[in-house]
Design brief:
Low-confidence stretches: none
Mean pLDDT: 95
Shape: globular
Distance between the termini: 56 Å
Helix content: under 10%
Oligomer: single chain
Strand content: 35-45%
Structural class: mainly beta
Length: about 375
């Protein structure tokens, strides 16, 4: 079954008819077609198993509202669904909000859909979040209309392809956000996820994040996201991230989270990112292959691997990295590492004023490695 979102859109829809079309599919699933054009979303599009979300390429744009950040004037205590804001100007029923503070974001933030607005008090239908937290004005508590554009909670056999997700933020402000829980695409505990030819740009969180489960992410472009462009998250395994471009993100081009195993990262281009091209390859990330990638002109290391165990880093090109502090960072950085194979990589610095003056930094190995690129 194929449903067209144009047949489900209305002035009252908070997702330009996308969620309504998904909800109209039978239990067996089907395909949701989003035609070219700009489709405003004021809350997450939530996918379920055996659903394909398909656009017409870059011309199909999911657009978020202009980012707003509103201070909380009263503390929001644990297990409460309401929040008292400095103002509620411009907020609408059905909008999604994130509640957090200076130290509590990510899993520790609170996500919800506005059910009612009375004066400066909003009541939320809470989504998956930590209800036990308390957010204090003294800790710079805030509400913001930041959310994952597409959210996959506990799904399987889902495909997202041929579309653009645009957060409209040209210059990101520093400060707390939802991080991976507000990625342009955020999958959690989902198997056989396929993300193909998707662009995520100007997003106030990570670009594409898959926490737990398995995924194929290929042909995607992530740029100018507040966080890493690509983020294989906790306990993801048996996955492939290939032929993607991740550039100009505020942290890393590619970020390994905790427990990434048996995953292939191949043929990608990571360049111009504020921190590392590829980062945080660390125990218990194991048995992964990083092959044929180009890491160029990143602020810190081309590839960073601390406490890495049993991985293969082979045939990558590391060019003109260490842009933030010339000479400090390397093409490949290894520390407290063992049982890794690092071979066949190419190191280039062809700038008038070289920055990547160190090919490999290898500090305090914790066991044997095969390193043949010195």
């Amino acid at each position: 079954m194929i449903l067209n979102t144009n047949d489900y859109t209305s002035k009252s829809s908070t997702t330009s008819g996308i969620q309504e079309a998904i909800d109209a599919l039978p239990e067996a699933g089907g395909t949701i077609f989003i035609p070219s054009g700009t489709h405003m979303i004021r809350r997450s599009v939530v996918l379920r198993s055996r659903v394909t979300l398909r656009g017409e390429g870059p011309a199909t744009i999911l657009l978020s509202p202009k980012e707003r950040r509103i201070s909380l004037t009263k503390r929001t205590i644990k297990n409460k669904t309401h929040a008292t804001l400095d103002n509620t100007i411009g907020l609408k029923l059905g909008d999604e909000l994130l509640i957090g503070d200076r130290t509590q974001g990510g899993y520790h933030a609170r996500h919800g859909i506005i059910e009612s607005i009375r004066g400066n008090v909003v009541n939320l239908d809470l989504l998956e979040c930590d209800p036990e937290r308390t957010y204090l004005p003294s800790n710079e508590a805030f509400a913001t209309n930041v959310f994952p554009a597409i959210w996959l909670p506990r799904t399987h056999e889902v495909t997202i392809e041929n579309l653009t997700i645009d957060g409209r933020i040209k210059k990101h402000r520093w400060g707390p956000r939802g991080n991976f829980t507000c990625a342009g695409i955020h999958a959690r505990t989902s198997l056989d996820v396929r993300i193909i030819n998707v662009n995520v740009r100007n997003w106030p969180g990570d670009g594409i994040g898959v926490q737990n489960g398995s995924a194929l992410v290929t042909g995607c472009l992530t740029e100018n996201c507040k966080g890493p462009g690509l983020h294989p998250g906790t306990n993801i395994s048996n996955s492939i991230w290939s032929n993607n471009i991740s550039r100009y993100n505020t942290t890393d081009g590619f970020f390994f989270c905790l427990g990434v195993q048996q995953t292939v990262v191949e043929g990608n281009l990571f360049y111009g990112n504020t921190l590392n091209g590829m980062a945080n390859l660390t125990d218990p990330d194991r048995y992964n292959v990083l092959s044929g990638n180009i890491c160029a002109e990143n602020g810190m290391h081309g590839i960073e691997a601390k406490s890495a165990v049993g991985n293969t880093i082979q045939g990558n090109i590391l060019r003109n990295n260490s842009q933030n502090e010339p000479g400090k960072f390397a093409g490949i950085y290894l520390e407290n590492h063992r049982d890794n194979v690092v071979t066949g990589n190419t190191f280039i610095d062809d700038q008038d004023k070289p920055t990547q003056t160190q090919k490999i930094i290898s500090l305090d190995p914790s066991g044997p490695n095969i390193i043949q690129d010195f």
